[in-house]
Amino acid sequence: MWVGTMPIALENFNPSFDRQDAEKARRLFELLWPSRKVRLACAQRLAKSIRYAHQNGESSWSVTMFNSGIRLNAGQVEVLRLDANDCRIIFHGPIAVRASRRFSVEYKRTAPVYPAVPVPSGVCRFDSKDIESIPNAVWKRHELFIRDAVAAKPTTPHRRSFSDGVLRHLELLLHTSLPRPTYVKNNAHERLHEICIYAIRTLDSLDTEWLAGGSFSFPEGKSWKEAEKQLALAKKRNLNMAILFADAAYDTRAIIYKAVIDGISIGRNATEIRVSNLKKLAVPIQKTDLVIASSGKKISRDHRRSYVVCRTPSGLDLLETALDPIPVTEDLPSATEARRRLVSHFRLERNRALVKRKKLAHQAETGGLACQVCEFDFSKYRSLGVGFCEVHHLKPLSAERAEVLTNLSDLAVVCSNCHRMIHRNGKCRTLSEIKAALNS
User: Fold this and answer.
1) Sorting pLDDT into bands at 50, 70 and 90, what band is 205?
2) Is residue 142 part of a domain?
């Protein structure tokens, strides 16, 4: 009679990222099944069950990677679990197979395994090294149960745990291709490499590019050598590499846009990055949820560098995005407005004490809070505007490689209009440039 033993588990497993990582899937397979023969047998069986589930319902199944094994769900229930020494096959009963010392068979006609799939069913349990000893009759009845499970629940609720890294590793291991469920966008444009890039651009420039169609290029002072290497690897695998953008001007914690990197050109003094398919996220995600590829550590809350190579977050391709912008046309006489909508957003908590000290110092020196570019003072609005101005960083934080100490001399008092012009189109112009433009 078969008896299970203690489970084997992958260390430092992070479901949010590792489920999309083919390399992590490879490590798990080799940890669970050191014997290549057993590894191939488990992979082939899993691939066959995946194909059968897909044939019965293209949105009805999901494969999920855990730190100790792989699970295939059809509908809302588990139909196959493969780990090191406690594998489970769910089958449609009755079955003319008796238990042996290599596997057990549990079946009661009046007690289905899952109430949600009310058909005669049972469980076959075995050690992974004995997978080839499982009779073909069990696998045939297993496929019948997959059909039953899909019929009971045509759309699986396990979409968010879908682990594309497992399927990509199976494809490499077995030299084959496997289907993806219809809820996973499964073309080369949207299937993503396990590595992505975190970067920062001003919200104004991102909004402008989004409205213009979402394809653009931008320069970066740093040399993106690792990103260039990863992009070449992604293209070799017919995958796309994502880039995630936070707002450089106000809030680097909230990732508000995602796009696909089309090309990276490294020059002598700068790197040019070409992107497309820029999409605004309906709900931003936190940069502190991203894991740095080289260290395996999460990006810190106060991280200010403009370029980080990260692991692609789980389900990035499934994140809800805002509706594509409607092009402005001259023949649009009217449009519906004032629809009430709940929007979640984040704002970077800057050092309010430093801003207050700058205002006090400028007021003490000049007698007011006039803009250092156009000399407009909000006190012209009388009591409503007294004490109001905007404070601008002369040295943009996005250009710094690490945390910096900001002095009052690094700040400038400006009005809202001049501040917008300083940062327009993603740049950071000097005060003298804005003065020249204003007086020309």
Assistant:
1) confident
2) yes
Nearest 5°: the CA angle 100, 104, 105 is 110
Measured between alpha carbons, how far is 435 from 7 in angstroms, rounded to an integer?
A: 69
* Count of CB atoms situated within 10 Å of the CB of 323: 7
Domain count, the chain: 3
Whole-model pTM: value is 0.49
Residues 132, 266 within the same domain = no
Query: How far is it between the farthest Cα atoms of the chain?
Result: 95
Residue 201 sits in the same domain as residue 234:
yes
Q: Per the structure block, which two tokens stand in for 22?
A: 């083919």
Question: Do 356 and 294 share a structural domain?
Answer: no
Which of the given ranges, 142-156, 240-254, 278-292, 388-402, has the highest pLDDT on average? 142-156
| Distance between CA atoms of residues 93 and 251, nearest Å | 58
Can you state the angle between helices 36-56 and 136-152, rounded to 10 degrees? 40
Q: Are strands 242-247 and 195-201 parallel, antiparallel or unpaired?
A: parallel
Residue 398 has pLDDT above 50, yes or no: yes
55, pLDDT greater than 80: yes
Indicate which CATH number applies to the domain containing 207: 2.30.130
Residue 268 domain-assigned?
yes
For 403, the domain range is: 352-439
Q: Which of 384, 373, 385, 380 is nearest to 417 (CA)?
A: 373
Arithmetic mean of pLDDT, 410-426: 89
Tell me, what's the pLDDT at 1? 45
